[in-house]
Protein backbone atom coordinates (compact mmCIF):
# COMPACT_ATOMS: atom_id res chain seq x y z
CA UNK A 1 0.00 0.00 0.00
CA UNK A 2 1.24 3.47 -0.84
CA UNK A 3 1.08 6.25 1.74
CA UNK A 4 -2.40 7.76 1.89
CA UNK A 5 -4.16 10.36 4.02
CA UNK A 6 -7.79 11.26 4.56
CA UNK A 7 -8.34 14.59 2.83
CA UNK A 8 -11.05 16.71 4.45
CA UNK A 9 -11.85 18.52 1.21
CA UNK A 10 -12.57 15.31 -0.75
CA UNK A 11 -13.83 13.37 2.29
CA UNK A 12 -11.85 10.29 1.32
CA UNK A 13 -8.40 8.77 1.59
CA UNK A 14 -6.03 9.83 -1.16
CA UNK A 15 -2.59 8.66 -2.17
CA UNK A 16 0.01 11.13 -0.97
CA UNK A 17 1.78 12.79 -3.89
CA UNK A 18 3.97 15.69 -2.76
CA UNK A 19 4.27 18.69 -5.02
CA UNK A 20 8.06 18.42 -4.95
CA UNK A 21 10.28 15.36 -4.62
CA UNK A 22 12.70 17.44 -2.59
CA UNK A 23 10.52 18.69 0.26
CA UNK A 24 7.07 18.35 1.84
CA UNK A 25 5.61 21.66 3.01
CA UNK A 26 3.27 21.65 6.00
CA UNK A 27 1.36 24.47 7.68
CA UNK A 28 -0.23 23.94 11.07
CA UNK A 29 -2.43 26.32 13.03
CA UNK A 30 -0.59 27.12 16.23
CA UNK A 31 -1.86 28.45 19.55
CA UNK A 32 -3.71 31.65 20.27
CA UNK A 33 -1.47 32.97 23.03
CA UNK A 34 -4.02 34.54 25.36
CA UNK A 35 -3.98 31.66 27.88
CA UNK A 36 -2.23 28.39 28.64
CA UNK A 37 -2.97 25.81 25.93
CA UNK A 38 -4.95 22.83 27.25
CA UNK A 39 -4.32 19.18 26.44
CA UNK A 40 -7.17 19.22 23.91
CA UNK A 41 -5.04 21.63 21.89
CA UNK A 42 -2.06 19.34 22.35
CA UNK A 43 -3.91 16.38 20.92
CA UNK A 44 -3.81 18.25 17.61
CA UNK A 45 -0.19 19.32 18.04
CA UNK A 46 0.83 15.72 18.84
CA UNK A 47 -1.05 14.40 15.80
CA UNK A 48 0.86 16.89 13.67
CA UNK A 49 4.11 15.77 15.32
CA UNK A 50 3.26 12.15 14.49
CA UNK A 51 2.52 13.08 10.87
CA UNK A 52 5.81 14.93 10.60
CA UNK A 53 7.83 12.15 12.25
CA UNK A 54 6.32 9.50 9.98
CA UNK A 55 6.99 11.53 6.84
CA UNK A 56 10.61 11.88 7.98
CA UNK A 57 10.79 8.13 8.60
CA UNK A 58 9.49 7.57 5.07
CA UNK A 59 12.44 9.56 3.77
CA UNK A 60 10.79 12.92 3.09
CA UNK A 61 12.36 16.25 3.94
CA UNK A 62 9.74 18.27 5.79
CA UNK A 63 9.49 22.05 6.05
CA UNK A 64 7.02 22.92 8.79
CA UNK A 65 5.50 26.31 9.57
CA UNK A 66 3.35 26.81 12.69
CA UNK A 67 1.81 30.23 13.17
CA UNK A 68 1.40 32.02 16.48
CA UNK A 69 -1.88 33.94 16.79
CA UNK A 70 -0.91 36.86 18.99
CA UNK A 71 -3.62 39.27 17.83
CA UNK A 72 -7.32 38.42 17.69
CA UNK A 73 -10.55 39.01 19.60
CA UNK A 74 -9.48 36.77 22.50
CA UNK A 75 -6.06 38.37 23.07
CA UNK A 76 -7.48 41.90 23.00
CA UNK A 77 -10.35 40.99 25.31
CA UNK A 78 -7.91 39.43 27.79
CA UNK A 79 -5.60 42.46 27.64
CA UNK A 80 -8.54 44.92 27.73
CA UNK A 81 -7.11 47.13 25.03
CA UNK A 82 -3.83 47.94 26.76
CA UNK A 83 -0.87 47.44 24.41
CA UNK A 84 1.61 46.94 27.24
CA UNK A 85 -0.56 44.31 28.89
CA UNK A 86 -1.25 42.82 25.46
CA UNK A 87 2.47 42.31 24.75
CA UNK A 88 3.13 40.95 28.24
CA UNK A 89 0.20 38.58 27.87
CA UNK A 90 1.19 37.13 24.51
CA UNK A 91 4.88 36.89 25.46
CA UNK A 92 4.03 35.03 28.67
CA UNK A 93 1.79 32.45 27.03
CA UNK A 94 4.03 31.96 24.00
CA UNK A 95 6.89 31.11 26.38
CA UNK A 96 4.60 28.67 28.21
CA UNK A 97 3.64 27.03 24.92
CA UNK A 98 7.27 26.59 23.88
CA UNK A 99 8.03 25.02 27.28
CA UNK A 100 5.10 22.64 26.83
CA UNK A 101 6.12 21.44 23.37
CA UNK A 102 9.69 20.92 24.57
CA UNK A 103 8.43 18.84 27.51
CA UNK A 104 6.26 16.75 25.17
CA UNK A 105 9.23 16.07 22.85
CA UNK A 106 7.42 17.68 19.90
CA UNK A 107 9.86 18.34 17.06
CA UNK A 108 9.99 22.14 16.69
CA UNK A 109 8.62 23.78 13.54
CA UNK A 110 11.12 25.34 11.18
CA UNK A 111 9.40 28.72 11.56
CA UNK A 112 6.98 30.14 14.14
CA UNK A 113 5.71 33.34 12.49
CA UNK A 114 3.74 35.68 14.73
CA UNK A 115 0.71 37.47 13.32
CA UNK A 116 1.92 40.83 14.61
CA UNK A 117 5.15 40.47 12.64
CA UNK A 118 3.30 39.99 9.36
CA UNK A 119 0.72 42.79 9.31
CA UNK A 120 2.13 44.26 6.07
CA UNK A 121 1.63 40.97 4.23
CA UNK A 122 -1.96 40.86 5.44
CA UNK A 123 -2.61 44.41 4.27
CA UNK A 124 -1.16 43.55 0.84
CA UNK A 125 -3.44 40.52 0.50
CA UNK A 126 -6.52 42.46 1.57
CA UNK A 127 -5.62 45.22 -0.89
CA UNK A 128 -5.37 42.64 -3.68
CA UNK A 129 -8.77 41.18 -2.79
CA UNK A 130 -10.29 44.66 -2.73
CA UNK A 131 -8.76 45.55 -6.10
CA UNK A 132 -10.24 42.34 -7.55
CA UNK A 133 -13.62 43.32 -6.07
CA UNK A 134 -13.73 40.19 -3.92
CA UNK A 135 -13.59 42.37 -0.80
CA UNK A 136 -15.37 45.62 0.01
CA UNK A 137 -15.08 48.50 2.46
CA UNK A 138 -17.90 49.02 4.96
CA UNK A 139 -19.10 52.36 6.29
CA UNK A 140 -17.07 51.93 9.49
CA UNK A 141 -13.87 51.34 7.43
CA UNK A 142 -13.73 47.60 8.04
CA UNK A 143 -13.00 45.38 5.03
CA UNK A 144 -15.10 42.28 4.35
CA UNK A 145 -14.74 39.27 2.07
CA UNK A 146 -17.73 38.99 -0.27
CA UNK A 147 -18.94 35.36 -0.18
CA UNK A 148 -21.08 35.86 -3.28
CA UNK A 149 -17.89 36.38 -5.32
CA UNK A 150 -16.59 32.89 -4.43
CA UNK A 151 -18.82 30.33 -6.16
CA UNK A 152 -16.91 27.46 -4.56
CA UNK A 153 -17.39 28.59 -0.97
CA UNK A 154 -18.27 25.63 1.27
CA UNK A 155 -15.57 23.33 -0.13
CA UNK A 156 -14.36 22.04 3.22
CA UNK A 157 -17.76 21.65 4.85
CA UNK A 158 -19.05 20.02 1.66
CA UNK A 159 -21.91 22.44 1.04
CA UNK A 160 -22.48 24.46 -2.08
CA UNK A 161 -22.67 28.23 -1.78
CA UNK A 162 -26.25 28.20 -3.01
CA UNK A 163 -27.37 25.97 -0.11
CA UNK A 164 -25.76 28.03 2.62
CA UNK A 165 -27.93 30.29 4.69
CA UNK A 166 -26.41 33.75 4.44
CA UNK A 167 -26.85 36.98 6.33
CA UNK A 168 -25.17 40.29 5.76
CA UNK A 169 -21.79 40.11 7.49
CA UNK A 170 -19.98 39.33 10.73
CA UNK A 171 -17.15 41.14 12.47
CA UNK A 172 -16.39 38.26 14.86
CA UNK A 173 -13.90 35.58 13.92
CA UNK A 174 -16.12 32.59 14.72
CA UNK A 175 -19.74 31.77 14.03
CA UNK A 176 -22.06 28.79 13.61
CA UNK A 177 -21.93 26.37 10.70
CA UNK A 178 -25.41 27.19 9.39
CA UNK A 179 -24.75 30.91 9.37
CA UNK A 180 -21.86 31.77 7.02
CA UNK A 181 -21.53 35.47 6.40
CA UNK A 182 -19.27 37.96 4.72
CA UNK A 183 -16.35 37.86 7.15
CA UNK A 184 -13.95 40.58 8.18
CA UNK A 185 -10.50 40.83 6.65
CA UNK A 186 -9.66 44.10 8.41
CA UNK A 187 -11.39 45.36 11.55
CA UNK A 188 -11.57 49.09 12.07
CA UNK A 189 -10.44 50.45 15.41
CA UNK A 190 -12.95 50.75 18.25
CA UNK A 191 -12.68 52.22 21.74
CA UNK A 192 -12.49 48.72 23.18
CA UNK A 193 -9.25 48.14 21.25
CA UNK A 194 -7.46 50.87 23.25
CA UNK A 195 -3.99 51.42 21.88
CA UNK A 196 -3.87 48.09 20.05
CA UNK A 197 -4.02 48.98 16.35
CA UNK A 198 -2.01 49.27 13.14
CA UNK A 199 -2.19 51.88 10.40
CA UNK A 200 -3.59 50.78 7.07
CA UNK A 201 -5.04 52.24 3.84
CA UNK A 202 -8.43 52.03 5.57
CA UNK A 203 -7.35 53.72 8.77
CA UNK A 204 -6.46 52.38 12.21
CA UNK A 205 -7.40 48.79 12.87
CA UNK A 206 -6.22 45.19 12.94
CA UNK A 207 -6.50 42.08 10.79
CA UNK A 208 -9.22 39.46 11.09
CA UNK A 209 -8.12 36.04 12.33
CA UNK A 210 -8.60 34.22 9.02
CA UNK A 211 -6.43 36.51 6.88
CA UNK A 212 -3.52 35.99 9.29
CA UNK A 213 -3.04 32.34 8.34
CA UNK A 214 -3.48 32.98 4.62
CA UNK A 215 -0.83 35.69 4.59
CA UNK A 216 1.68 33.79 6.73
CA UNK A 217 1.29 30.40 5.04
CA UNK A 218 1.72 31.92 1.57
CA UNK A 219 4.67 34.03 2.70
CA UNK A 220 6.61 31.05 4.06
CA UNK A 221 5.35 28.15 1.92
CA UNK A 222 4.22 29.74 -1.33
CA UNK A 223 0.82 29.95 -3.02
CA UNK A 224 0.51 26.15 -3.32
CA UNK A 225 1.79 23.70 -0.73
CA UNK A 226 1.21 20.13 0.41
CA UNK A 227 -0.54 19.80 3.78
CA UNK A 228 -2.56 22.07 6.05
CA UNK A 229 -3.44 20.71 9.52
CA UNK A 230 -5.56 21.67 12.48
CA UNK A 231 -8.33 20.45 14.76
CA UNK A 232 -11.82 19.71 13.45
CA UNK A 233 -13.02 22.91 15.11
CA UNK A 234 -10.83 24.82 12.66
CA UNK A 235 -12.62 23.47 9.59
CA UNK A 236 -15.37 26.05 9.79
CA UNK A 237 -15.21 28.96 9.71
CA UNK A 238 -11.43 29.37 9.95
CA UNK A 239 -10.08 27.01 7.30
CA UNK A 240 -13.09 27.49 5.02
CA UNK A 241 -12.51 31.24 5.04
CA UNK A 242 -8.75 30.86 4.77
CA UNK A 243 -9.18 28.69 1.69
CA UNK A 244 -11.66 31.07 0.08
CA UNK A 245 -9.56 34.21 0.48
CA UNK A 246 -6.29 32.47 -0.46
CA UNK A 247 -7.63 30.99 -3.69
CA UNK A 248 -9.29 34.30 -4.56
CA UNK A 249 -6.08 36.25 -3.96
CA UNK A 250 -3.73 33.91 -5.85
CA UNK A 251 -5.91 32.05 -8.37
CA UNK A 252 -4.03 28.96 -7.20
CA UNK A 253 -4.99 25.70 -5.47
CA UNK A 254 -3.52 26.77 -2.11
CA UNK A 255 -3.41 23.32 -0.37
CA UNK A 256 -3.50 19.74 -1.66
CA UNK A 257 -4.30 17.87 1.59
CA UNK A 258 -6.36 19.15 4.51
CA UNK A 259 -5.94 17.01 7.63
CA UNK A 260 -7.87 17.50 10.87
CA UNK A 261 -7.76 15.75 14.23
CA UNK A 262 -10.87 15.06 16.30
CA UNK A 263 -11.77 16.53 19.68
CA UNK A 264 -10.36 15.34 22.96
CA UNK A 265 -13.00 14.87 25.64
CA UNK A 266 -12.64 15.06 29.40
CA UNK A 267 -15.32 13.46 31.57
CA UNK A 268 -17.53 12.89 28.55
CA UNK A 269 -17.52 16.44 27.21
CA UNK A 270 -15.35 18.33 24.73
CA UNK A 271 -12.42 19.98 26.47
CA UNK A 272 -13.06 23.70 26.61
CA UNK A 273 -11.70 26.70 28.50
CA UNK A 274 -15.12 28.35 28.29
CA UNK A 275 -16.65 25.44 30.19
CA UNK A 276 -13.78 25.20 32.67
CA UNK A 277 -13.44 21.59 31.54
CA UNK A 278 -9.75 21.27 30.77
CA UNK A 279 -6.30 20.18 31.91
CA UNK A 280 -2.98 21.75 30.98
CA UNK A 281 0.46 20.22 30.54
CA UNK A 282 1.66 21.85 33.82
CA UNK A 283 -1.34 20.15 35.49
CA UNK A 284 -0.13 16.76 34.28
CA UNK A 285 3.49 17.50 35.18
CA UNK A 286 2.40 18.40 38.72
CA UNK A 287 0.75 14.97 38.98
CA UNK A 288 4.03 13.26 38.09
CA UNK A 289 3.24 12.17 34.54
CA UNK A 290 6.07 11.80 32.04
CA UNK A 291 5.92 13.13 28.47
CA UNK A 292 6.09 9.60 27.07
CA UNK A 293 3.00 8.59 29.05
CA UNK A 294 1.04 11.57 27.76
CA UNK A 295 2.22 10.97 24.19
CA UNK A 296 1.21 7.30 24.34
CA UNK A 297 -2.33 8.07 25.51
CA UNK A 298 -2.78 10.81 22.91
CA UNK A 299 -1.34 8.85 19.97
CA UNK A 300 -2.71 5.35 20.64
CA UNK A 301 -6.14 6.39 19.34
CA UNK A 302 -6.64 7.25 15.68
CA UNK A 303 -6.37 10.98 15.11
CA UNK A 304 -9.79 11.11 13.39
CA UNK A 305 -11.64 9.51 16.32
CA UNK A 306 -12.78 11.29 19.47
CA UNK A 307 -10.57 10.54 22.45
CA UNK A 308 -11.79 10.60 26.03
CA UNK A 309 -8.83 11.49 28.23
CA UNK A 310 -8.42 10.51 31.86
CA UNK A 311 -5.66 10.56 34.44
CA UNK A 312 -6.21 6.83 34.88
CA UNK A 313 -5.23 6.30 31.24
CA UNK A 314 -1.92 8.06 31.85
CA UNK A 315 -1.27 5.83 34.85
CA UNK A 316 -2.22 2.70 32.89
CA UNK A 317 0.06 3.71 30.01
CA UNK A 318 3.03 3.14 32.33
CA UNK A 319 2.53 -0.61 32.14
CA UNK A 320 2.70 -0.59 28.33
CA UNK A 321 5.75 1.66 28.29
CA UNK A 322 7.42 -0.48 30.97
CA UNK A 323 7.05 -3.48 28.68
CA UNK A 324 8.64 -1.61 25.78
CA UNK A 325 11.56 -0.42 27.87
CA UNK A 326 11.92 -3.83 29.50
CA UNK A 327 12.25 -5.67 26.19
CA UNK A 328 14.55 -2.97 24.85
CA UNK A 329 16.94 -3.56 27.75
CA UNK A 330 16.70 -7.36 27.44
CA UNK A 331 17.66 -7.19 23.78
CA UNK A 332 20.49 -4.72 24.41
CA UNK A 333 22.00 -7.05 27.02
CA UNK A 334 22.15 -10.04 24.63
CA UNK A 335 23.14 -8.10 21.51
CA UNK A 336 26.70 -8.21 20.22
CA UNK A 337 26.54 -4.42 20.02
CA UNK A 338 26.97 -4.19 16.23
CA UNK A 339 23.55 -2.84 15.37
CA UNK A 340 24.50 -2.22 11.74
CA UNK A 341 24.02 -5.94 11.11
CA UNK A 342 20.32 -6.51 11.64
CA UNK A 343 17.12 -7.95 10.21
CA UNK A 344 13.78 -6.28 10.91
CA UNK A 345 11.08 -8.70 12.12
CA UNK A 346 8.34 -9.49 9.60
CA UNK A 347 5.94 -7.50 11.78
CA UNK A 348 7.81 -4.32 10.90
CA UNK A 349 6.29 -4.30 7.38
CA UNK A 350 2.76 -4.65 8.78
CA UNK A 351 3.47 -1.89 11.27
CA UNK A 352 4.48 0.49 8.47
CA UNK A 353 1.53 -0.59 6.34
CA UNK A 354 -0.82 0.37 9.15
CA UNK A 355 0.67 3.86 9.38
CA UNK A 356 0.69 4.16 5.59
CA UNK A 357 -3.10 3.81 5.85
CA UNK A 358 -3.90 7.30 7.14
CA UNK A 359 -1.76 6.90 10.28
CA UNK A 360 -3.71 3.95 11.69
CA UNK A 361 -2.00 4.02 15.07
CA UNK A 362 -4.31 1.51 16.86
CA UNK A 363 -3.49 -1.16 14.27
CA UNK A 364 0.21 -0.23 14.26
CA UNK A 365 0.44 -0.58 18.05
CA UNK A 366 -1.52 -3.86 17.91
CA UNK A 367 1.07 -5.28 15.49
CA UNK A 368 3.95 -4.03 17.63
CA UNK A 369 2.68 -5.31 20.98
CA UNK A 370 1.85 -8.72 19.50
CA UNK A 371 5.47 -8.93 18.35
CA UNK A 372 6.68 -7.71 21.75
CA UNK A 373 4.78 -10.47 23.55
CA UNK A 374 6.16 -13.13 21.22
CA UNK A 375 9.76 -12.00 21.75
CA UNK A 376 9.35 -11.88 25.52
CA UNK A 377 7.96 -15.42 25.40
CA UNK A 378 10.99 -16.60 23.41
CA UNK A 379 13.38 -15.02 25.89
CA UNK A 380 11.44 -16.36 28.88
CA UNK A 381 11.70 -19.86 27.39
CA UNK A 382 15.42 -19.43 26.69
CA UNK A 383 14.91 -19.86 22.96
CA UNK A 384 17.96 -18.84 20.97
CA UNK A 385 17.70 -15.80 18.75
CA UNK A 386 19.98 -14.98 15.86
CA UNK A 387 21.97 -11.80 16.49
CA UNK A 388 20.51 -10.23 13.35
CA UNK A 389 17.04 -10.79 14.81
CA UNK A 390 18.09 -9.39 18.17
CA UNK A 391 19.47 -6.26 16.55
CA UNK A 392 16.41 -6.08 14.31
CA UNK A 393 14.26 -6.02 17.43
CA UNK A 394 16.31 -3.19 18.88
CA UNK A 395 16.01 -1.29 15.59
CA UNK A 396 12.24 -1.90 15.54
CA UNK A 397 11.86 -0.38 18.99
CA UNK A 398 14.04 2.55 17.92
CA UNK A 399 11.68 3.09 14.96
CA UNK A 400 8.73 3.05 17.36
CA UNK A 401 10.47 5.73 19.39
CA UNK A 402 11.43 7.84 16.37
CA UNK A 403 7.79 7.91 15.20
CA UNK A 404 5.92 8.01 18.51
CA UNK A 405 8.51 9.33 21.00
CA UNK A 406 7.38 6.94 23.75
CA UNK A 407 10.58 5.17 24.82
CA UNK A 408 11.40 6.35 28.34
CA UNK A 409 15.17 6.71 28.54
CA UNK A 410 15.34 9.34 31.29
CA UNK A 411 13.46 9.46 34.60
CA UNK A 412 12.50 5.83 34.02
CA UNK A 413 10.66 4.41 37.02
CA UNK A 414 10.79 0.58 37.28
CA UNK A 415 7.59 -1.41 37.75
CA UNK A 416 8.85 -2.51 41.18
CA UNK A 417 8.77 1.10 42.39
CA UNK A 418 5.24 1.61 41.10
CA UNK A 419 4.13 -1.54 42.95
CA UNK A 420 5.75 -0.40 46.19
CA UNK A 421 4.06 3.01 45.88
CA UNK A 422 0.69 1.32 45.35
CA UNK A 423 1.25 -0.91 48.39
CA UNK A 424 2.18 2.15 50.45
CA UNK A 425 -1.01 3.92 49.38
CA UNK A 426 -2.96 0.88 50.53
CA UNK A 427 -1.35 0.95 53.98
CA UNK A 428 -2.04 4.68 54.26
CA UNK A 429 -5.69 4.09 53.43
CA UNK A 430 -5.86 1.55 56.27
CA UNK A 431 -4.11 3.96 58.64
CA UNK A 432 -1.04 1.71 59.01
CA UNK A 433 1.44 4.60 58.99
CA UNK A 434 4.41 2.54 60.18
CA UNK A 435 4.12 0.13 57.26
CA UNK A 436 3.63 3.06 54.87
CA UNK A 437 6.77 4.74 56.22
CA UNK A 438 8.81 1.54 55.86
CA UNK A 439 7.84 1.31 52.19
CA UNK A 440 8.56 5.00 51.67
CA UNK A 441 12.05 4.50 53.09
CA UNK A 442 12.57 1.44 50.90
CA UNK A 443 11.58 3.47 47.82
CA UNK A 444 14.00 6.17 48.96
CA UNK A 445 16.81 3.59 49.29
CA UNK A 446 16.11 2.51 45.71
CA UNK A 447 16.66 6.08 44.50
CA UNK A 448 13.13 7.46 44.24
CA UNK A 449 10.83 9.85 46.11
CA UNK A 450 7.12 9.24 46.58
CA UNK A 451 4.67 12.05 47.26
CA UNK A 452 0.95 11.89 47.95
CA UNK A 453 -1.20 13.53 45.28
CA UNK A 454 -4.96 13.88 44.99
CA UNK A 455 -4.96 11.38 42.11
CA UNK A 456 -2.60 8.87 43.70
CA UNK A 457 1.10 8.60 44.50
CA UNK A 458 3.56 10.76 42.57
CA UNK A 459 6.97 9.15 42.02
CA UNK A 460 10.10 11.08 41.11
CA UNK A 461 13.77 10.13 40.82
CA UNK A 462 15.81 11.25 43.83
CA UNK A 463 18.19 14.04 42.85
Your description of this structure?
With 463 residues, this protein is α/β, with parallel strands linked by helices. It has three domains: 16-270, HUPs (Rossmann fold, 3-Layer(aba) Sandwich); 309-404, Anticodon-binding domain of a subclass of class I aminoacyl-tRNA synthetases (Four Helix Bundle (Hemerythrin (Met), subunit A), Up-down Bundle), CATH 1.20.120; 415-461. The protein has 14 helices and 16 strands. It has helices at 39-57, 73-79, 83-103, 119-131, 209-221, 235-250, 281-286, 291-300, 311-334, 347-356, 361-380, 387-404, 415-430, 433-445; strands at residues 4-7, 12-15, 24-28, 62-66, 135-137, 143-145, 167-170, 181-188, 205-207, 224-231, 254-261, 264-266, 269-270, 307-309, 448-453, 456-461. Strands 5, 6, 7, 8 and 9 form a five-stranded mixed beta sheet that branches. The chain has a four-stranded parallel beta sheet with strand order 4-3-10-11. A hairpin with a 2-residue loop joins strand 15 and strand 16. Helix 2 (73-79) crosses helix 3 (83-103). The longest helix has 24 residues, at 311-334. The radius of gyration is 25 Å and the shape is globular. The model has no long low-confidence stretch (mean pLDDT 90).
Quickly describe the structure.
This protein is of the alpha/beta class and 463 residues long. Helix content is 44%, strand content 16%. The protein starts with a strand and ends with a strand.
Amino acid sequence: MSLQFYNTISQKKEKFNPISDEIVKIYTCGPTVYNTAHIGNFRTFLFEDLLKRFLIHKGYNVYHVMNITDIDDKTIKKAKGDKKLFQELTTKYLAQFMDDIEFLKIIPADVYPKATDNINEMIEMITKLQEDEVAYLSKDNSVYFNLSKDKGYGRLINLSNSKLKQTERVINDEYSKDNPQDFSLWKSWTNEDGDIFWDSPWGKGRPGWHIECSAMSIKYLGEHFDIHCGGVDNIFPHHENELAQSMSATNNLFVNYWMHSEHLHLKGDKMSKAKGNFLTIPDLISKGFLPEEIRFVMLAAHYRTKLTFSLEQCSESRSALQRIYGLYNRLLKISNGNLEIFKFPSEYDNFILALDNDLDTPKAFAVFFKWLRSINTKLDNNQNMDNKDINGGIKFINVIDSIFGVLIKENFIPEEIHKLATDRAGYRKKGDWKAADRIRNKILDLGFLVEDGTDGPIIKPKK
